[in-house]
């Protein structure tokens, strides 16, 4: 997992795979496998928690804070406890919800756009912002 500054909005926290024989593996390769076998939910949660932990570290150090963008797999956008899971992490690390920006992939909106829009409304009500790409 890594954080990189992408623009004025702040860093993006993301994950790439690595094997000793093939080196770096693009998320485009392993994410579909993880979506099929159900591991993507655990991976997403781990990345969200790492981002919250990093924000807490920056807050404690008095750093200038920018929201961190994290991906949400299409599997998790349709999970009924997404809002509660994100809020539990921001509460655990005592960071404002607005500092975690959820990035939704284009494929997320094709499955069930109405359910996705309802979830986005719930997230916005908690000051958790979403971007699309």
Description of the molecule:
By secondary structure, the protein is α/β, with parallel strands linked by helices. Helix content is 50%, strand content 23%. It contains six helices and seven strands. Strands 1-2-5-6-7 form a five-stranded mixed β-sheet. Strands 3-4 form a two-stranded antiparallel sheet.
Please specify the SSE layout and strand pairing:
Elements: E1 2-7, E2 10-14, E3 17-19, E4 23-25, H1 27-37, H2 40-60, E5 68-72, H3 74-77, H4 82-92, E6 100-104, H5 106-111, H6 113-125, E7 129-132
Helix pairs in contact: 2-4
Give me the secondary-structure category. Answer: alpha/beta
Largest beta-sheet characterization? 5 strands, mixed
Question: What form results from the Cα inertia axes?
Answer: globular
Helical stretch tally: 6
Strand composition percent: 15-25%
What does the radius of gyration come to? Answer: 15 Å
Question: For the largest beta sheet, what order do the strands appear in spatially?
Answer: 1-2-5-6-7
Unreliable residue runs: 1-9
Rounded average pLDDT:
81
- Elements, N to C (H/E): EEEEHHEHHEHHE
Q: For the terminal residues, how far apart are their CA atoms? A: 20 Å
Helix content: 40-55%
Number of strands: 7
